[in-house]
Amino acid sequence: MRGLIGDVLAEGGVEVVGEAADGSDAVRVVAEHRPDVVTMDLEMPEMNGIDAVEAVMAEVPTPILMLSAHTEDGAEVTFEALDRGAVDFFTKPGGEISTGVSRRKAQLVEKVREVATADVSTPLARSSAGVDGPSGSRAGPGGRRTPAVGSSSPAGPTDGGGTDTRQAGSASVSNSTAGPTTDAYVANPTLVVGASTGGPNAVERVLSELPRAADFRVLVVQHMPAAFTRRFAERLDAKSDYDVYEATDGARIGGGEALVAEGDTNTLVSGYANGRLRVRLTDEDYDKGVQPSVDVTMESAAEAVTGPLVGAVLTGMGADGAAGIRAMSRAGGHTLAESEESATIYGMPKRAIATGAVDDVRPIDAVASGICDAVRDGTR
Question: pTM for this structure?
Answer without folding.
Answer: 0.82
